[in-house]
Amino acid sequence: MSGFRSVEAVFFDIGGPLYDDENFVRAVLSAIDDLRAERDLPPASRARFREIYDETRARQHGSLRGALAAEFLGDTGHRKLLHERTGPYWTHPEGTLHSDVLPCLRELHGRVRTGVLANQEATVLEPLRRDGVAPYVDVWAVSGIVGVEKPDPQLFAWALREAGAAAGNAVHVGNRLDTDVRPARALGLGTIWVLRGEAPPEPTQQQLAEPDAAVRDLSTLPDLLFRLPAPGAAAGTAASRPEGGPL
Ligand SMILES: [Mg+2]
């Protein structure tokens, strides 16, 4: 017993870990402005948007779309409408793949099965192919393809089945506590929290104790992946959490 998790599969959230979350910000703001124009309202205040966005990032729970619908469309109930209208704008333009993604995937290639596990439109396959990520992806757990969204455990279970791995031999890499770390951990996967995009800029110690490890980027991930505590070890405690890079 090495005390480390034996890792056979790793799943990556897309927005945050792979692509810049500002792609979603641009899309949702475009949809909000369209919906406001249809109601003869001026474009949304960017300053107020950032306040709500940062509040949601700091809290790590609660629906961002719901809060935006309430603030800018006057009704939380317009959350679904906002989601639908965001979809067509939600693209990942060239140059928005984080520069540490391909080096990380190349290092992991052949050592573990790799998947994406994300709430994204099915069209996300296009940028992943264009940017050279697709050849490294064995499992495509994309909500727009599978029909289930995180944090639903079904999407994680689907990814595990496709990878042929038990939860105890898998790790999820995501940038949110509510839709990545908590549901993955509840199923028994190891968890690495990537602190960029929708993650809080200054996470609390309590938040940092939730995943097995937290990193600012993917540069240390290939080594870190094989130094996570074994399932059943006191994961999430400061003593057992490997150094995940400077925080
Ligand atoms: Mg994300």
From TrEMBL:
<keyword id="KW-0378">Hydrolase</keyword>
<protein>
    <submittedName>
        <fullName>HAD family hydrolase</fullName>
    </submittedName>
</protein>
<dbReference type="InterPro" id="IPR023214">
    <property type="entry name" value="HAD_sf"/>
</dbReference>
<dbReference type="InterPro" id="IPR051400">
    <property type="entry name" value="HAD-like_hydrolase"/>
</dbReference>
<dbReference type="InterPro" id="IPR036412">
    <property type="entry name" value="HAD-like_sf"/>
</dbReference>
<dbReference type="InterPro" id="IPR006439">
    <property type="entry name" value="HAD-SF_hydro_IA"/>
</dbReference>
<dbReference type="Pfam" id="PF00702">
    <property type="entry name" value="Hydrolase"/>
</dbReference>
<keyword id="KW-0460">Magnesium</keyword>
<dbReference type="GO" id="GO:0016787">
    <property type="term" value="F:hydrolase activity"/>
</dbReference>
<dbReference type="GO" id="GO:0044281">
    <property type="term" value="P:small molecule metabolic process"/>
</dbReference>
